[in-house]
Amino acid sequence: MNKDREKRILEERLERCRQLSKDFPNGLTAEHLRQIEAAIVDDLRALEQH
User: Fold this and answer.
1) How many domains does the chain fold into?
2) In Å, how far are 7, 8, 10, 36 from 41, measured between CA atoms?
3) CB of 6 closer than 8 Å to CB of 46
4) Among 32, 39, 33, 35, residue whose Cα is nearest residue 20
5) Per-residue model confidence (pLDDT) at position 1
6) Exposure string (b/e) for 1-19, b if CB count within 10 Å is 16 or more?
7) Which residues neighbour 29 within 8 Å (Cβ) at sequence distance 6 or greater?
8) Which domain holds residue 6?
């Protein structure tokens, strides 16, 4: 996959995750969203290093 396209997709997913976090600030869903956000941030960092 094109690096710029992959970055854009990850950034869109991160933005959506952050929007959902505002809707679900507490509980199990919030915990899962934080985990997903952290994974996406890790993916973005890894993409930048390559």
Assistant:
1) 1
2) 11, 12, 8, 9
3) no
4) 33
5) 67
6) eeeeeeeeebeebbeebee
7) 20
8) 2-49
Q: In this predicted model, what pLDDT tens digit does every residue of 11-48 receive, in sequence order?
A: 999 999 999 999 999 999 999 999 999 999 999 999 99
Radius of gyration of the chain (CA): 12
Given this model, what pLDDT does residue 50 score? Answer: 80
Amino acid identity of residue 3, one-letter, is: K
d(CA 48, CA 6): 11
Q: CA–CA separation, 44 vs 42, rounded Å?
A: 5
